[in-house]
Structure formats: C-alpha cells, structure tokens
Amino acid sequence: YSSGGFNQDIAMRPYKPEVSGNWEFGVKSLIRDGRVQANATSFYTVYEEQQLTVGRVVEGQPTADLINAQEAHLYGIEVEIIAAPTDDLTFGASWGYLDGKYKQFDVQDNLLDPVTGEGIIVDRDLTNVDPIKTPDVTLTLSGSYVWHMDGGHNLAAHLGANYTSRSWNSLENKLASKQDPLWLMDARVTWTAANGRTEVAVWARNLTDQEYFSGALDFTGDPETLPLQFNSTYTMPPRMFGIELSHTFGG
User: Fold this and answer.
1) Which domain holds residue 160?
2) Can you give the pLDDT at residue 222?
3) How many domains does the chain have?
4) DSSP letters for 2-15
5) Residue 197's domain is classified under what CATH number?
C-alpha cells in the first residue's frame, strides 16, 4: 500500500493511493545428500491505482509527476538451482519469467491541436504499453571456488553473469528508453588470513564494459513549451574495479 498525496508543484494533479494484492506459491528442496538445492516460486500481483513516475514540462520547467494506472496485473515464475559438487566448489543458476499488463490505464494529457494550434486536454488510453522495467526473461549464472593454502589461509574466487531480455524504461515505450538484451559480468577474488579476521579482495563489476541505464523519463511539454520536450535517461556505471581491505577487531 502507498498513500495518495499532492504533488509539490501546484500545476500537477493530485494522485490516488496505490493498493496491491499479492499471491505467491513456492517450493524448496534439498537432494543429493544436501549438495543440490532446487527452488521454484510463482507469483501473481494485482495493482489498483498503481503510482507511476512520469516526466512533464510545466511552464517551461522539467519536473517529475506521479500519475495512477487504474489496474495492472503482474505475474511470473522463478527457478533456482544451487549445487555444491565438493565442499569448495559451488555453482548457481536461476531463470525467471515475468509478464505484466495494464488492464485499464487512462490518463489526461496536454496536446497541441494540429488544426487550431491551441492547447487541448485529451484522454489517452495507455492500456497497450508495456509496463516499465519488466523484462520477459532473466538469467543468472555463478560459480565459486575456495583454495585452502598452507598456513591456514584461504583464497576464494567468484564469477557471476546476469542476463535480462529487452525492456522499456519509460512509460510510453519511447525508442530512446529501450534497453536491449543485456549480459553483465562481475568477478571477485578474496584472500582470507588464517585468523579469519583479515581479508583482502580484488573485485570488478561490469567486466565487459556494457553501456546500459537504470531508468528514463519522457518529458512532455505543455503546448506552449513543445520545443522543450525531451527524453532523460539515467546511465549506469561503466566497468569498475577496486581493492578492499577489511579487518574484524574484538572477540
């Protein structure tokens, strides 16, 4: 549940409270003497008056606005497997499917009448747009191994990869907000001292230096400010790497 409220800008319309109902069913199991864990989950969520952030240009100023989608349905499944062939080697994999639909989504917008050139308020039906950030398929793969060294030290390595299928980051599914299918890879190597308290880690994120973004806004202007209409995207960090040193004090 999210309460309703008033947008801070007096030119914006108030928005209604969001209410959702969620149904979830899952199973977890251990097989092969506990070395393999298999999990499966399915869910179904119904939103009433779902609150969505959109971009608008009001009196020449870009601003974020909250609106309501009258009814939205979201459902999906996820399957996960974690396997440990040995005490030191672990593999993980998960696959997810997600589908979302608006059952009713009517909004009012300011548009320019092409005949008269005057601003008009029109009702728009956005029921057929794809919900924001709902890739159909997600996939995660990972592997970890621990080497036990002389003197009681340990060296652990981890490699992970995440896949997401195509998704949209703005309400109206504008081309500039489309996120193409994407693979992201991360890696980490950690040395742990024999005392179990001191660690040195080398890590890297987005190993293949993919360009992607976390969100976008379509800024729609009032008829008087149509030249100011634009799209804003939020770019995620490029390839990053670093070193971490940690030590735990006390008992």
Assistant:
1) 19-247
2) 47
3) 1
4) B--B--SSTTSPPB
5) 2.40.170.20
